[in-house]
Amino acid sequence: MFSRPNLYGNLTKICGNMRTTALVNPSSVTAAAASSPTPYSNANVRQYHEVVGDIVCPSQVRGIDHIRDPRLNKGLAFTLEERQILGIHGLQPARFKTMEEQLELCKIAVNRYMEPLNKYLYLADLADRNEHLYFRFLYDNIEDLMPIVYTPTVGLACQRFGLIYRRPRGLFITVNDRGHVFDILRNWPEPDVRAICVTDGERILGLGDLGANGMGIPVGKLALYTALAGIKPHQCLPVLIDVGTNSYDLLEDPLYVGLRQKRVVGKEYDDFIDEFMEAVVKRYGQNTLIQFEDFGNQNAFRFLDKFRNTYCTFNDDIQGTAAVAVAGLYASKRITNRNFADSTFVFAGAGEAAIGIASLCVKAMVDEGVDEKTALSKIWMVDIDGLLTTTRKKGTISTHQTKFAKDVEPLDKLEDIVTKYKPNVLIGASAAAGIFTPKILQTMAANNERPIVFALSNPTSKAECTAEQAYQNTDGRVVFSSGSPFPPVTINNKTFTPGQGNNAYIFPGVALGVIATGTHHIPEDMFLISAKELANFVEQSDLDRGSLYPPLKSIHEVSMRIACAITSYAYKEGIYINYLTPTLIIALNICSQKSHIRFEL
């Protein structure tokens, strides 16, 4: 059975004590059967689709249905006695296998596949038939499997979603369901949902408008909620808002599974999103966490501004990306000995990720004691039409970009901007592959002893430069990070293993802290706190190998540290709903220093 995390059970108990009922461990089946004269009368037996979440009682689901339910299935780990009592004797081979033996088989099986997409499909199948084994396998091999269940492979899975779709793993709510969104939510069998990840598929990673094919993103995100933060799988709900797609290729693709129409926009679209938000609160409660993911730039900012003070919501593309990038910048201070306020930043890209990072950088500078006007003057932003200025004649500037526009002469080329303004930090969030040319990287190296270059665009094919290009063109002096993983690079007889600025370092811990405290709204301070916690977890050995982030194998502990920090902040600021005593806060911080999630049969 998937047990609660051993060392930080307090947090998960808080997550589960508001609306849960008793959870019966599968190992208790034998004892229950022995103590009851008629443990399996017809009144007690239910079909597997009739039981949900924490009220799944193994004694109520018998026979083939017990094996077909991924929440109850243990593969070949059922003992002979369990097989006889549950009515599954003879439905499986005679061999008994422990979880460890099954995990070894999973490793052999996944390693036989050479293509990442085939590995992704194997893991999806595993999740559909044995939930406990899937999350344990993911937990134990997070370094190897993170690129499969998340970026970059999830991008390929979205592109081919119509071909690989097998069974429902979330809700598809179309614009044709207007007026009935609440009824659609009621069709989801789990009544105790605490976290929702929702996308409309308009801007999937750096791949553009994928419409309904974007469902792979919320599915992958919420899998990491469980694997990295221990949030119960049945409390997570992936949602795809299908309002059409503007991709001509998808509209003509016979394998496309979404609505075959142009995107609905304007008031009709906004009213539909409003209905969805209201339906979520009506169905699951005011403190249900709603994570917005991969919406178009304008909609992402609009919805964040509109909903952040009325719902429990955040946008991972804006705030999660910002937190992980700023964490890397905090860690880089130990290399450059330079504060935020002492640096000049140039951003290639002025979309939601870039604006989010820049805004959190401003907040970090203010935290260092600099006034906001001075902090804004340190940041230069470039979009497809060139430098954001108040005087440029082509291109438009959105409301969120306005504060970063400078009253200077327009410049169109990134190379000229880097040469003129001599940034210490160059951050790419443009989805423009190769935009960090050798000349730009060499200029950064000429102007800085340790230039900082972040190529954050996903997937790998959209990165502004590769790790090898960054190190080669700076004589190995660059402080580098990327949004997708790159292999180690050897320069001047030294091998660098660059770290990936992965949002997965941030959003699971934030989600756990928010759910644990029952916080109704998520202040921006929580993301600065998360960035600091992540940076504090980076050790000198990580910096020496060329990484600004801790190894992925420690990401579970990072998530717990962040959750504890969020919990403490919510308690101190009085924005919690679930009561937390100071003693419990101290206990949580102690737990965070030695926490490990356990997945057991």
From TrEMBL:
Its cofactor is Mn(2+); Mg(2+). CDD domains: NAD_bind_1_malic_enz. Residues 127-308 form the Malic enzyme N-terminal domain. SMART domains: malic (SM01274), Malic_M (SM00919). One of its GO terms (biological process) is malate metabolic process. It comes from the Eukaryota. One of its GO terms (cellular component) is mitochondrion. A divalent metal cation binds at residues 293-294, 317. The active site is at residues 150, 221. Residues 318-571 form the Malic enzyme NAD-binding domain. (S)-malate binds at residues 203, 458, 502. SUPFAM superfamilies: Aminoacid dehydrogenase-like, N-terminal domain (SSF53223), NAD(P)-binding Rossmann-fold domains (SSF51735). Keywords: Metal-binding, Oxidoreductase. Divalent metal cations. Prefers magnesium or manganese. One of its GO terms (molecular function) is malate dehydrogenase (decarboxylating) (NADP+) activity. Gene3D superfamilies: Malic enzyme, N-terminal domain, NAD(P)-binding Rossmann-like Domain. InterPro entries: Aminoacid_DH-like_N_sf, Malic_enzyme_CS, Malic_N_dom, Malic_N_dom_sf, Malic_NAD-bd, Malic_OxRdtase, NAD(P)-bd_dom_sf. Belongs to the malic enzymes family. This is Malic enzyme. It comes from Glossina palpalis gambiensis.
